[in-house]
TrEMBL record:
Name assigned to this protein: Osmoprotectant transport system ATP-binding protein
Domain ABC transporter: 2-227
Originating organism: Rhodococcoides corynebacterioides
Protein family per UniProt: Belongs to the ABC transporter superfamily.
Keywords: ATP-binding, Nucleotide-binding, Transport
Gene Ontology molecular function, alphabetical: ATP binding
Presence of keyword Zinc-finger: no
């Protein structure tokens, strides 16, 4: 479980991005942070892997205060996917996915074999595995981004507007693929979007953020929709 207890983030310029957030994210849930731009969704998510440190309050993963955990170690258990897939331009698709496993001690051969399996799982046409990122479409790059985040088999996956830069048809495809993947993998997913339709399609729990970085509602999609 990921828990936020009284978490506040104020940036050095005085902006109050997240205000006294209390939230418990269940293991293996698909939790979506939704709300208008600027309401603290990304800041909240980035505090889970310590890319951002809270000003006050405590975040725990499996009962352990993450401020006491080495950030590099913490991140080995947390996959991260962003809008622009963030792939390494000078490595092929398969090597992008194999990078972290190789850094953590897997042989290149094993890591490449595992990478091909993960690429297949995310629905990438495997004939693209030896291409470079710039030779892929936006949608294909996002699939590789998801595969890379999954390569070390982390229990937690953070996804920050991962599909918002691709065209609507491809986006629907990726959303469907994500649901299929989650049915199979059962990760603890935290997914940020400003699109309520995407939130209710994907999430089994929806955290609705409002202006001033406050949590306004936290419930199942049917309850959020009827509110
Ligand atoms: P969201 O993800 O909901 O769009 P963010 O978490 O990115 O919201 O931002 C929350 C608020 O914090 C916004 O007002 C934003 O402008 C501000 N903010 C984000 N990052 C910084 C920063 N590094 N310095 C100052 N203000 C920031
Ligand atoms: P989408 O809009 O569906 O994301 P694109 O129009 O960007 O797709 O790409 C369509 C196809 O062209 C894809 O199969 C992709 O692999 C291929 N492609 C795109 N850019 C390149 C490139 N620079 N070199 C080779 N193939 C490319």
């Amino acid at each position: 479980m990921i828990s936020f207890e009284g978490v506040t983030k104020q940036y050095p310029d005085g902006t109050l991005a997240v205000d006294s957030l209390d939230l418990r994210i269940e293991d293996r849930s698909f939790t979506v942070f939704v709300g208008p731009s600027g309401c603290g969704k990304t800041t909240s998510m980035r505090m889970i892997n310590r890319m951002i440190e809270p000003t006050s309050g405590t975040i725990s993963v499996d009962g352990r205060d993450i401020s006491t955990v080495d950030a590099v170690k913490l991140r080995l258990g947390i996959g991260y996917v962003i809008q622009s897939a963030g792939l390494l331009p000078h490595r092929t698709v398969v090597d992008n996915v194999a990078t972290v496993p190789v850094l953590t001690g897997r042989s290149r051969k094993e890591a490449r074999r595992d990478a091909m399996e993960v690429l297949e799982r995310v629905g990438l046409d495997l004939s693209l595995a030896t291409r470079y990122p710039s030779q892929l479409s936006g949608g294909q790059q996002q699939r590789v981004g998801v595969a890379r985040a999954l390569a070390a088999d982390p229990p937690i996956l953070l996804m920050d507007e991962p599909f918002s830069a691709v065209d609507p048809v491809v986006r629907e495809d990726l959303q469907t693929e994500m649901l299929r993947l989650q049915a199979d993998l059962k990760k603890t997913i935290v997914f940020v979007t400003h699109d309520i339709d995407e939130a209710v399609k994907l999430g089994d729990r929806i955290a609705v953020f409002g202006t001033g970085g406050t949590l306004q509602q936290y419930d199942t999609p049917d309850v959020v929709l009827s509110a």
